[in-house]
Amino acid sequence: MRPPVLVAGDFTGLAIPDARSTRVEVDRRGALTLVRRGSPAEVLAEAGVIDRITPIDGSHLPSGQFVPPAHLGIVVFWSGDRRMVAIAWNQVWAASFNLPTVQELRHACGVEAVAQALGAAVEAPTEADVRQARTWGRDDVLTLIDPAVLPPRWAAPGMALLIVLAFAGLPATGAWWVVVPTLALLTGPSLSTRRRRREFHRLVTTPLDPAGRSSVRPRPSGPTSRMVTSHELQIGADDVVLRTEASEWWQLGPRRGGVRTLDVHPEHWILRDVGDRQVLTLSAAPWGDVLPELERACSQAGIDVRHHAEPFMGPVARIDGPRPATARAHPGDADVENGNGGTAASTLRQIAVFLALLGSLLSVTRYEWWAIPIVLWAFALVLVSLEAVALRARWVRDLRRPITIHQKETT
């Protein structure tokens, strides 16, 4: 039986640590709690408070209403007509899911098990529920991603204002006393971007410790790319983990009431939970000749293996096949996805830095030698920005690098 716990979705980049450890669960007292790495459990609702749970489809909500986005909709925990907790589906399930019904989704991600532990009913939302949800903002929906990873609200508008200030620092419209505060205001965000980019690179390039799980990696025949071979499926009795070039998705293993069966079809390999619902569907072709390893790993973890002669014709819940070498090697361009703290803010910051450099260079001509430290300061910020860009460019280049796999060796 599945325990009353909601695990994180397929988180990317700087949010990978949250994918590994952040959970929403019902504790022994019957309270709904949020468990984050390195922090004591936070009580979201005391025992007996929540009496109903309603899934609200994303089509009923304004686009861009929440950060991170809640395109799939939200699930709301109520006490009467009072919202206690609201969670976006893509915080507790893979964003690329394609389960046919909300009912299957709520069972697959654990909402039904949580509801039973809370003694709450899972119901369709009323019109009043939907109207209330449409008024909520960013702070009203719980994110399993550490808030420190998310970009602050002021990031993009703040950088836009700095561009205006940098323009004012050009000698035609301003003076050095505008350039200096502009550089001062750009220093913190520039160093933060450098730090975040380095942490992103460390997270996506450092191998995941199997911790007793069996590791299965794609081994397609012939030419491929490191984007393909960076994929990994780790299978254990407690956890099943899919790792891509820049993300991780953790699911409960058979010992914890999660993945229970592997269905082997000619073109698809499907991992199913205790309710026979799809959890993960692998495309056989890009994974190559690893089926014997996959079956052995599943058997060792206590996952039953079933063979089917006919191809799988049903809807696919969440399919994973490493992308071809020609695909864009980007995990995404929004918010936490790429370690920038927001693409718009990062781009605007770089523009402001180069404008500040231009203003400082022109100020040397106007104010001579004592403006040289200002120019050096601006150059340092440009180098910091270029380092962050270069680090990402090298990572993308390495992922696209063509390689050839000969049997079990990579060259």
Summary?
The protein is α+β, with helices and mostly antiparallel strands and 411 residues long.
What does this structure look like?
With 411 residues, the protein is α+β, with helices and mostly antiparallel strands. The protein folds into three domains: 136 residues; 120 residues, no CATH class; 90 residues, Signal recognition particle alu RNA binding heterodimer, srp9/1, CATH 3.30.720.210. The chain contains eleven helices and 21 strands. The strands form five sheets. Strands 2-14-13-12-10 form a five-stranded antiparallel beta sheet. Strands 18-15-16-17-19 form a five-stranded mixed beta sheet. A four-stranded antiparallel beta sheet has the order 1-3-4-5. Strand 15 and strand 16 form a beta hairpin. About 5% of the residues have low confidence.
Number of β-strand runs: 21
- Low-pLDDT stretches are 323-341
- What's the tally of helices? 11
Global shape = globular
